[in-house]
Amino acid sequence: MTEIADASSPAGRPAKAPRRAPADLPFTFMDRALVEGISAERGEPAWLLEDRLAALALFEALPVESSQLYTPYVDLRVASLDGAAPYRVTATAAASTAEGLPDGVAGLLELREDEVAVAALSDEARAGGVRLLTLGELVATDDWLARDLLAGGTLIPADEKLAELSRAAWSQGVLVHVPAGVRVAQPIVVRWAVGAPRSVIARTLIVLEDGAEASVVEELVPSEGVEAGAQALLCATTEIRLGAHARLAMASLQETGPDQVVFQQRRAEIGEAADLRWALAQLGGRIVRSRVDNVLAGDRGTVEQTEIVFGADDQLHDLTSYTRHVGRDTTGHLMSKGVLMDRARTYLKGLIQIEKTAVGTDSYLGEFGMNLSKAARAVAIPSLEIDQPDCRRAAHASSVGPIDETQLFYLESRGIPPDDARKFIVLGFLEPVVARVPLEEAQDRLREALEAKWSAGLAGTRTASAA
Amino acid sequence: MTSTRDLVRDDRDQFAFHDDIVYLAETKRGLTRDTVEEISRFKDEPDWMLQFRLRAYEHFLKRKMPTWGGRLADIDLDKIVYYRKPSEREEKSWDDVPEKIKATFEKLGIPEAERKFLAGVGAQYDSEVVYHSVREELSKIGVVFMGTDQAMKEYPDIFRKYFGTVVPPEDNKFAALNSAVWSGGSFVYVPKGVEVPLPLQAYFRINGENTGQFERTLIVVDEGAKVHYIEGCLSETELVSLGDSMVPIVDVKPGTRVMNSDGVEANVSAVRRRSYSGDMLKLVPVSIGNAFEVTPEHPILAMRRHDAAVWNGHGWVMDEAAFHTSDPDWIPAGELAVGDLLCFPVAAKQRDHPELSDDLVRFLGYYLAEGSAFENGVSGVPTVRLSFHIDERDKVADARSLMSALAGKAAGLYEIPAKHEAQVYVYSRELMDLCMQYCGTGSSTKRLHGDLMELPPVRQQLLVDTYLLGDGSRAPRRANPDRTVVRAITTSQTLAFQLQEIFARLGRYVGINIRAAFEETMPDGRRISHRDAYVLHFVENPGNSYTWFDAGRNCFWVPVRRIERRPYDGWVYNLEMASAPNAYLARGFAVHNCTAPIYATDSLHAAVVEVVALAGSKVRYTTIQNWSNDVYNLVTKRAHAYAHSTVEWVDANTGSRLTMKYPAIYLRGEGATAEVISVAVAGKGQHQDTGAKAVHLAPNTTSRIVSKSVSKDGGRATYRGQLKVAPGATGVTASVRCDALMLDDQSRSDTYPYIDIGEDDTTMTHEATVGKISADQVFYLMSRGLTENEAQNLIIQGFLEVFTKELPMEYAIEFNRLVKLEMEGSLG
After folding, report:
1. Distance from CA of A229 to the nearest CA of B (A)
2. What value of ipTM does the predicted structure carry?
């Protein structure tokens, strides 16, 4: 605001920094010295430094958006992260007791900034050989497995600049490992508390071996006691490997603070007859750029991805999903839903790729937006690239519209006040994701968060219209 | 040329029928500032237009080549002639159009179309509008329909007001290019409240190789007016049906019946022409007279020598076992080698004609060899006369009795011992007419009537017997005196090929050699000049055979004796057959229609179409794009729709190598409506990157986009569209639907819709599906008696019906035919 005032007085105009282009990076900390520094300070083996440097080379070579389809829809201008220095050395831990474990949860790993707050795992899970630990701990204690998972066979997409950033400069990370045939009935919770004006650069690996079953709830929440004003970065990758017949339910609830910049890159490789269910909720953040890659590599694999966005104020959610069908008779069902208030912007980009080998594919992509404000903007780009016509289904659909007046009318005719009726419709629109969160407590929290956001937005709209 | 033999030749010397147009003004190849200024000077344009062009040129230089969409790297902008002007001035009436250009248009069938129902014709030849006619009633109601250049001069105010406002030169690289070098195109102005009752139409075609087509169309429809504009791009002639005849390939029209590779007559559905520069191959079989020329990539039905023959110490002879187990293949001419076997099909059609008595057939054999039929120059008496050597008494007697019987009166005999000649003659109009009808007259123009060609072999044998008695000679073979060589000489090329065909049906492959024209001096001092003669020859009692009859496939296999190459630069032709197999005969040999020729150079079509639909008006713009497969079609089409107006783009793309075209509508006035129906068929080597764009800038506007694409044979169909609702455009309703059909797994289908909604009360829906033809549907239709091909066609036509039902009937038929052709090309 002050800058605009300055601009109006010709004499007192300050020397402005050159304007950033939409795809320019909002930070300058990334260089070889940082990568080498992190590796040295953490005392890492040489192979890991090598892997970090390979990633750095890719990071430097890649554009922010590698798909030309989406280059007009990249906008990082509101992010400003020069004050957010990356963490270098962080605490490590392995969940070796059930101490501090809440009810109904098989494991909990809570990371606060660079600290580890809780690391706990139920006795049953431990008995089954399940492992829940930080990556630092893994590198320090199991060089062989660390090498196998982190270097060489990494799932991080080689065409994604921000994912390579994580691979090059990560300082915190989590491994969830479920051995073959083990079924973990209760969810494992991984909680990240972020928001101090720092950059948390992280990797998460979830490995389910053949026939394993598990559910994971990832919670991204603001750190306590962080003051508003300075932006923070969470740049995180998630790599999921599902062996044959493995089943994973993966929920992620992103409720970070209003100054949080979030870059998320997730990739899942789904083996033969394996099954992956995503439930992704994007509520918080100043600017969120997320990409999910589902690769249906084995025959008869299934992925179901349900994603919701609830944008308000000036939030920008930029979400991409790629579904690549390689094996035979695979199934993909992706649905993204967005509710937009105030001046929020949401980009929903999706691409189904059916390769020549993927005979008998069934793939659906739906992108639906609900605009609740005149100033909000929803962009949907659902695309198809098909090389094999012999499919059960290859379709996408999208729609963008206001609250359905007939639904509203119906609810009002039942005596529900208009504001409540609107709330029910909006929350009902978003309910599919809530229902898919595998932890009841997390479901309740998510419902509360959505409701709170709705009420805050409503209040904001009222003050705005009153003004 | 007259003949009943349906034989298609491939004669290069006939090809130059449009090469002799004199271009009155033509720029150098490549684009510089001078080119732009030169074009403006040629056209005697006002200064503002020159400045417009130069501004566009500057932007063109700055702008990078698009890297998205299709592959553009092969376009060489420096090789293009940016402006060519074939005739000096705009023509008002068809009669004033220069003959040569008119002839080209007549081949396109334009006057036909005009006579039928078209309201006006604007035909663009190369880069300039040469012909425009507007029907009187249109002129009367004030509709302006003329060339864009003419409009710039005659309607400067309205022209300048709208030109370049819908598509500014800075819009994209190819719009900039068009703005810099544009020429030709149509201008339409429909005054307030006027409804144009019939569609307006313009034809465009690219004539010269590497001539860019940069036409510029501007359509302004004033308040409350209505118009439907149709643009047809035909670079491949799709002509009306003619009768059958033996003709050079340049004269073949769609609908002509020619013999296909199965020896069955079939309709030609299209004649394809393209310019070609490179080697031309002459394939010379052991029968030299059957040599023909083709381009190296042209597929020929052949068998490899090693698949069918063995070396017996003297020559290659049939290897029975291999021959019957190996299948012939369509081999590109360039890959054939000497000794490979070409397929010479035997005509399958057979029908007896009882009105042709055995006596008449036998007589006609004599007549073909020795006879003439004429009206006596002095008395006008109808005469039929046969000439024999005076010693051939048996033949004379036989011929004389036949002649007497057929004419119903005694034939005369006139001996001229000095010339060693015996003439048999009769004065009979009936017999003369029969001779003329069935065999023609004159030694070099004789040919056989179709009825004779169809007779059963037993009866044809009668004709051949008496023919050989007359013209034939028998001699022991020089190399092997045990064998007798039979020869017959005729100066009629047509007759030679017809007899070859008849002999084939009688189970004998007869070679044709050519004896070049020569003069000789007889012992008595007379000089005799001989024309080119065709020598039919065969060995009566062959030992080793070098050509083999293949009863199973009802054809002969004839080895290639030699292959010649020569450089060639000109037009080449190709035929599309209406039914499978899509192959025809070149000098008797089976040649496949070549659906995807490889082009040495590529043409660019970068047009700009601007439509201004003022308040309450209605415009529909229909395009059927069927450019040949070497054309890059990069077109910018955009309309501005003002309050309560309706703009519809109806757009079909079946041709071109790469099309990048996204007809756009900017809805600028409240209550405006936009509709885009886009259809694409991508075949072998084609990429149709098409779609639509609707930008809602005003409240209560509506748009509907429907896209249907079909990809096959490795073709790629891409839908790329944008739907944008700007803030402030409240109450928008929009829908996008894209369906794609893939016919095989070599093909590819992509869908990239961009939906950008900046207003809360927008109602937008989008759906897309991709699939293949359902086996159930095909099975059902086949159970109703359709062939698989017909069933597929029917399903595809149903799939595309959303488009065809928007077309005037004649265009719908035409379009269905185009699609069908594309389909059959894939199966033939």
Report:
1. 28
2. 0.76
